[in-house]
Amino acid sequence: MTAKPPPFRDPNLPLTERVADLLGRLTVDERLAMLHQFAPPVERLGLAAFRTGQEALHGVAWMGPATVFPQAVGLGATWNTALVRRIGDAVGAEVRAMRERDPRVGLNVWAPVVNLLRHPLWGRNEEGWSEDPHATAALAAAYTRGLRGSDSVHWRTAPVLKHWLAHNNETDRATCSSSVRPRVLYEYDLPAFRGAVDGGAVAGVMPAYNLVNGRPNHLSPYLESELRTWTEDSLVVCSDAGAPTNLVDAEHYYDTHEEALAASLRAGVDNFTDHGEDSSVIVGRLRTAYDKGLLDEADVDRAVRRLLTMRFLLGEFGPDPYADAGHAFDTPAHQRLAAEAAEQAVVLLKNDGILPLNPSAKLAVVGPLADECKLDWYSGTLIRRSTPLTALRERFAEVVHVEGSDTVRLVRASDGLAVHVPQAAGEAADLVRGAEGALDPALLTGRTDLPPLVLDAQGTEVALLDWGGDVLTFKAPDGRYLSVAEDGFVRASADQPGGWVVQETFRLEPLNDEQDGQLLRHIGTGGYVSVATGGLKVAADRAEAEIFRIEYVERGTEAVLRAAAEADVVVVVAGNDPHINGRETEDRSTLALPRQQGALWRAAHSANPRTVLALVSSYPYAVPQADAELPALLWTAHGGQAGGTGLARVLAGEISPAGRLPQTWYAADSDLPGLFDYDVIGSRQTYLYFEGTPLYPFGHGLSYSSFTYEDLTVLQTQDAVVLAVTVANTAGRDADEVVQIYGKAVHPRVLRPRRALLGFERRRIAAGARETFHFRVPRAELGYWDVAHGTWRVDPGLYEFEAGASSGDIRLRCLVEAEGEPAGPRPVRRGLCAVDYDAQYGTCIVDRTKTAGDSVAAEGGGRGELVFGDCDFGDGVRGAVLTVSATGPGEVTLAAGACEVTVPVSATGGPYAYISLDTSFEAEGVRELKVGLAGPVRLAELAFTPASSTPSPLADE
């Protein structure tokens, strides 16, 4: 007789019963073990090991060959939710296909990244969708729906959103705190996450490394107070790698790891990614915390229940509807989809009529990205690749290529001997060279079977590329990059810069004025190139560094000048390498194009005015001079395996471009806020608030076709505004158009966006045809977070709706009188939270306690001010009570009308040791309140004492 399976394996039972049954069968130690990223098997119950975390940002990453789609910012540039959903579907299928071959592939995918592209210098700009929360949410929801799969019960993969919350800098990312006022939180940062969760296909989130308002994101109270209130579905919170340990070692937020893990678990984190595959450290700390009573069985069960629910939804404990789905990767359909995505991601920034290119034109294709198909840290391994050069050669009969790098010799200053790149021999040569002598695309950094560089009388001419910020790479004549392996020797051994620590980048370090030459410093190790037995080697000691002179054999601009002069059109392909100067762990320092690349387009243009600049990059550049002088500019993110073909098809006119910028392109660094300034409202960031003139506005992108916008109509329903607009293609070719709908309050009572995206759709319109686009805007999207009353509010009054091709190209407008609830003045007599200010100067938000609440302090213990508008003091107050803490002497100043008082504050015993201070303070009626802070003081709340015993009508609101 066959034994009856336990209830948790019965697919006919409700999910909650199955989860509860399995949870009840696990011991405490088995439950604790499940809280690590690598959960071990439970053999007595037939449970397999389970791994949370599989990177799948724009294809399956880190697990070998896979279809590589454009970077996320490039997918954001498509403005096409239907396409993005299809890509998510393809990626989900490849995850399953690879899982069938390799059990290390996880079904809990850590994607997409929904952090808003607030600041274009963020090193991980390539990972986000857009600077706009509406666009980000829509695209992220589409991608997760594709990843989730179409089965109504079981999930093909379980997507986790990254990175909760307000994470937009790599500099000091594990220790810095983002000061996020309530309006920015509710109007900007949270909507990107909530919109994706509302899409119904999100399995959870991953907290970011940084702190928000002085509290680590892995202790975020918003995980429970916001995230888990948005849906009835179970959501898993997975820590970022190493972040649990950071709570103690880097952030010093808790004294012991046991306290930190327990607090994180209670805050809502369910799974800990730390110490790699070795779960013993984290599980041991959790066991100690459990034994000490820092967490209890309910805390553990809550997290394990969520993890088990995810595993059930993935079909682990019963019939798996995806098991026989015949998943595959690199299918012809996926190849076509990657090509379609690359084409749709191309943005035409400027065109004076030179594009599309004449089919008979002789082209000079120049620049460091002309013959490259770059990957990034979250890419899979390419099975196939295209470059702009190869794709253009397929379309044009005459194409000349010049990389534009400087050809140099590295000469030892002391004796004139030069660096020589030895030829690989034997089997090593076979690995380096393919059958036809082409560089093997599988060549990786770190090889030690190739001969190190040496010195000889003649040396080898190498190509020098300057990527900006004085970061250099060198390439041997056969295309191999100079790289440093673990043994410290320098070899020509890498096909591309790459790796978590890039081993192919160097910097020239000048000597003093009396010495001729420079030191060559290896950026990855920080050491200096020296001469050792066996060849050139990186030495840690500067005293051992060799002094080199750079002898220029030919400047790259000279070769570009020759090629440009003989061509009909020059296409300069410039941009970044995603592993250099802007990537995870490294923010950019400037919007400027690298100096060497700027020199290339200027040289090309001086020889041939018919010069086109194509930027292939992970982020925006400030190129106002190029925009002013060149007849055409384009941008695309690194487009994955088909990026070169996508760009070439647009240049050749095989398709009309319709990509749109997912973020503002600024004209200069001076337009940018501080990297750590997260107050998009107060410092006027992104297209929502920016008051300057951008180089290219949010949503910008040109076409080879032309479109007219007609008949914008608006219909109000009880809970929405419904808009329709007709768009006509007035040109002689079919083309896509991206219709964008914006809205704004005409007479806002508080600072509101200049315009905000409310809807968009990309659609193909046939030549001469008209299409009507419909948009439904929920009335709530017209609102804002009312800090004075602690609620979301839609003010009554006039709202303007706009339809156009970008935020800077509005074609039609209409006004609507919308209903709403008037706010009224701020009822301060019931109390005032310091964080609910309307404006601030020189302050930052800090944690009130380690678990919840906010206070405000002057930055760096200096001086700052808070402004609260329309404060209703009723018929008068006669005193104020301040809730403060202080680590040293300081003061708080209150000013309203003619009354101003200063309250000295002494040290209270620590930042979390709050006391109440009484002071006399007189004010009446509705007026502005200013609160000054000085010294190491934290202000949490203000309360006011009525002048009479008669309560204010607003006192009980």
UniProtKB/TrEMBL annotation:
Highest rank taxon of the organism: Bacteria
Molecular functions per Gene Ontology: hydrolase activity
Keywords: Hydrolase, Signal
Database matches in SMART domains: CBD_IV (SM00606), Fn3_like (SM01217)
Domain Cellulose binding type IV residues, every copy: 825-946
Domain Fibronectin type III-like: 737-807
Protein family: Belongs to the glycosyl hydrolase 3 family.
Name this protein carries in UniProt: Glycoside hydrolase family 3 C-terminal domain-containing protein
